[in-house]
Amino acid sequence: MADYYIYAVHQEKDVIETVKICISYNEATGPENKSLKTRQNVISDIDESKKSIFTLYKESQVWKLGEMVKVKEISGEKYIKTKANGKRCDNLDNIEQY
């Protein structure tokens, strides 16, 4: 069970600025108990609080559970990713941008 889900991101170039999160979701109606977090909040939640965070995305009018979000350090900089691709950028696949 996830502590929360990321369902949208605001990104400048290759770095996420803020994310829209929810505590729960319904497959038909989407995110519930919504709020906003900064990228640094997400990194701290994973690194320090050991929270379990997953992505959430909409496909064919149905909200689906995505991948677990991880923090990867590359050249001394921390990035949030669903897949370790070795690139110096944040990467949360299939996430809506706002």
Automatic annotation (TrEMBL):
InterPro entries: DUF3892. It comes from the Bacteria. This is DUF3892 domain-containing protein. It comes from Clostridium algidicarnis.
